[in-house]
Amino acid sequence: MEHFACFLLFLTLNLASFTSMASSGQDQFIYNNGFSGSNLILHGTAMVAPNGILELTNGTNTYDPSYALYPTPWQFRKVPFGAVQPFSVNFVLNMVPGVLCANTMAFMIFPSKDLEYGRIRGSKLAINLVSCQDKRFLENNENDISISINNSFSRPPETHPAGFYDDKNGIFNDLPLVGGKAVQIWVDYDGDATKINVTIAPLKLTKPLRPMLSTIVNLSTILDEGVSYIGFSSDAYCVGTLNYVLGWSFGMNSPAPTIDITKLPKLPRFGPKVRSKTLKIILPIVITTVILLVGATVTALVWRRMRYAELYEDWEVEFGPYRFSYKYLFDTTEGFKNEKILGVGGFGKVYKGVLPDSKFEVAIKRVSHESKQGIKEFIAEIVSIGRIRHRNLVQLLGYCRRKGELLLVYDYMPNGSLDKYLHCKEGKYTLDWANRFQIIRGVASGLFYLHEKWEKVVIHRDIKASNVLLDAEMNGHLGDFGLARLYEHGNDPQTTHVAGTFGYIAPEMARTGKASPLTDVYAFGIFILEVTCGRRPINNYAHDSPTILVDWVVEYWQKGSLTSILDVRLQGDHNADEVNLVLKLGLLCANPICSRRPSMRQVMQYLDSEMPLPELMPTNLSYSMLGYLQNDGFDQYKSVPSTQQPDIEPHDWKMTQMDGIPAMTSSMKHTSPIIVFLTISISLSAISASGDHDQFIYTGFTGSNLTLDGAAKITATGLVGLTNDSFRIKGHASHPAPLHFRKSPNGTVQSFSVSFVFGILSSFGDIRGHGFAFFIAPSNNFSAAFPIQFLGLLNDTNNGSSTNHLFAIELDTIRNDEFGDINDNHVGIDINSLNSVTSAYAGFYSDNNGALTNVSLIGDKPMQVWVEYDGNTTQIDVTLASLGIGRPKRPLLSLVYNLSTVLTDQAYLGFSSSTGLSTGHHYVLGWSFGLNVPAPIIDPTKLPKLPNLGPRPQSKLLEIVLPIASAVFVLAIGVAIVLLVRRHLRYKEVHEDWEVEYGPHRFTYKDLFHATKGFKNKNLVGTGGFGRVYKGMLPNSRLEVAIKRVSYESKQGIKEFVAEVVSIGHLQHRSVVKLLGYCRRKGELLLVYDYMVNGSLDKYLYQQEGKPTLNWGQRFQIIKDIASGLLYLHEEWDKVVIHRDVKASNVLLDKQFNGRLGDFGLARLYDHGTDPQTTHVVGTIGYLAPELVHRGKATTLTDVFSFGIFILEVTCGRKPIKEDSQGRQLILVDWVLQNWHKGSLLDTVDVNIQGPICDKLCNISMGMCHYQSYNWSTSALTLNSVNWHRESFLDTVDIKIQGNYDIGEACLALKLGLMCSHPFPNVRPNMRQVMHYLDGDVPLPELKPEHFSFDMLALIQKQNKDK
After folding, report:
1. Active-site residue, 1141 included
2. Is 479:465 a contact under the CB 8 Å cutoff?
């Protein structure tokens, strides 16, 4: 027994020893020479590379993490419920950043090795290495190491920037995790102290003494009682992320074995291989290289010149507005990209752009010379709108000409054309009545300016809703002057052919072919009715005969229910009086008898309620416009040109050939336009109602009408691009109309065939993004679909639902386990779900041997797909092949599935694609379809080419320098630079940023230098404090100009220059001096004006320089001219302009002695509806309003005061302030008032125009100049009876015009001058009222003596004293 007991004791001790030895052997491991031959547990993209390196991610984004685990589990407790033993981990890793960033990599302790939905759930401890901010963990740095417990998605207990403490000085050094270099990490857990230490260092540095991160964590309360697995995890969310582990060691109850870095596997090379450069200096090669460089330089310069070449004509210098360079406009539109296109029509294309310097949004119309009316309309528009400035006219900012094309640059109107709102195009909302009325009034104001206010009469000839554009505030702007005609005021227009848009053309145009302002009024009347009623001028959709809008309105007017025809969308939301006014005004303007139409001046007065609208008489409206048009011979005229209709409107008189509609034949050209358009309407209806098209084919998509949404677009080369370089986007392209797949609602789905050519390009080489799909679905609205793996078709809630009625062929380039994908390069058939019913590796079967040839869906070579469905056998065949090899006989996929259970009666077909955190470009090059017939064969030679997204191959230039050639080259450059600098200094100018946005045409100093023959004294016109004015002649156009040359030494020089360029630079009015352009040099400023032959008005009033006396007719016309110009400045331009210096010396006279207001050096601008902010007094003594001296604030009424003084000055021939022989100041206003109080107002009229009263004016003058007695209570002067006798009025007129003036006009001018120069602003009229008084439209209010009991001199002296 004793021996047996001893034996058992010996056996127990040996087993314990063996167990201890075994345990000791299992407590450590090390992978120092890589992981080849290891049996690690790998999940996801994790793999061991041939050189032994552990690759956790491979650069693709699979959306599932990758894992590498030690093959056997570890027991971290010695006994159940015991404490976790100490352990130590050491590993070497390398993290390469992806396209966006490198994702999280971590060392972890797991309770299990099994995957659950692609992940190992419930990690207990993780050492996270984060190279970019991960919102799940809320790291505060892009280069962090943190410790997380129990798979926590809240902030870890400890986070620290990656780095190490120097053992010598204790300084912390940052260490990038993704710098491309390997780093070494140590993780140590002290079981007794329950502390975790994390240390990191560069690969070649030994372990630092001080850990980077240290925290107290009792893992005994964290880890499970059972065994646990240890290993690494890495996310694959980012494209291009490459995470490697080079070595790994572990120790339980002992330090982890030291990794010998010399034995670690080598990292793969990242980026191109560095090539050595060897210089070979050989004379022949050097000479050849120099010749090639010179030739290449010359070629590049010539090519660049030709690329941006432009055309110049002589007339452009005289008439043209600002001329842009083609390169500037090329950059403005980013190379005229298709996505910048705003509209397309017969004239060409319109692009949206942003001027690079001013960031100002513009619209650029690009007209081809091949356009039949291109150059002719271009010149018309340049000459007319190029100089027109009005707040209700689309402003032409400039232009450019090239060989073969013309470009016009306009203000960009963000809300597009009015017709889209009236007729509900593109989902536009309904305009309320206030907007419509304001638009009507705005267009009327613009037409009034064109007909009467500009320097010439402009007939627009194409007024219609589509030519009215709306700005951001929904104000109407009349545009498209391509058919405009100009002629001088007082002349007769000479146009002799019909032009315009059918429905807006006045009846008399058919007889005479002559356009006039009244033909514009007719079109405006139709426009009013269209805006008010919301109906087109001609309704071509009626079943029997076309309905004419005017006839329709007249019919309701005759019934007495005029307002009932208001647009039904406005019922209950309108001003009944305004509606009644505009409808009657529309009928008045659209009267077929031109003599019964009002002028635009009268139209404005009716709209502003300044004149009552005439009653409409039944005899004037007893007509049928349809009959009138037919009787007037409209059917005898050929097609009428129209300049702007991007989409075909049934009322536009023009023919555009479309698929399925025959082009206009010669016989149709002589047919009534109404019949022609009815024919088009019937043809369009026939196409819409004919049912399904049996076939269609696209070989490129330029000009196609596919429905696009999301990121989808049609490129300039004709490709359909579904996606781009943006992340998390989707794009769809579908056939514009649904197709009927069943012959009857309850029938079966018919056979169909589809073929398409596609290309998938990656911006990052072999890195894969998502694929795309061909679909047939009940709707082409995929707004609820998700991007990323859902391909823009479905989302996480409806995937797999039978209510989707979706059939799709997916071409997928990412493996997604959620959808059961077989790999990352496959083709699948999807029914209501992205979990394919069947799928196969991408490839095709050879017709020769039947072998499967695999192909990559991503690449620069297009692929072709054929999809066929047999309605009888319900078999679906999908075939794939490289483009050009033909269709293989054996399909890649075959599936029997009855699509009658899936597809709806009507369904859309098209393409869908999306991107996630990786991007890709998905293109469709061609597409064909056949219902019950084979899809038409796509000709590969006619398809557009795929773009090259990779870097362009760079030419290899030999780096050879020849000393002699270099010296000659440098010398030649030096000489050229010296010559250029010398020339540049001679004509040097100064440019400011504001000039791009505000400036008119900029002249070169060289041109102005030659125009004035070097600014010679004999060309000097005048001299003043501002500088000098020279007469000159522009070299090209031979146009006479006046050039104001202002020196910087002038106190107000630069300030006045800026004010004048910003204001008058955009003003265009026949009574405002035109600023043609400017120039700036260092030390001087130059302004170029129209030359006014007869100089300034003051020289004629005071007979300076031997000037003759102006007669009364000339003076009164000058007063009206300046009033018209001030009205334009105050109310009709884009902004309110306060001139602040209205006086006789600033009024210049042209050849016909018309007055033009000039010198805008003191002008101030502000927006309509805002308050002016000027706070200092400027102007000329005698013309300054009293309140301006008191408050220093200029307003439009201070201009009115100056204008009142100007009227009195012109009428009386006296200066505003003069001294008598005793040195006393005599105020012109006081002198006129004194004579008015005496009853001798006309004594103040210039004596040179006074004389006997004209008998025919006797009654008028007595009526205007006779008043009854008044009691004056506000003045010391009391008149019991004051009689204003005709003879006593004559005493006030300028003695120089005695005997030759209109008494009624003289009385009117004097009284209006007193009203305007009243010291109290609220008594003065505005300039619109002034114009009505001068034109005789409104009688002048009676002057009350109690309103004019003041002494202007005393007021001025008092205010000066107060000031």
Report:
1. yes
2. no
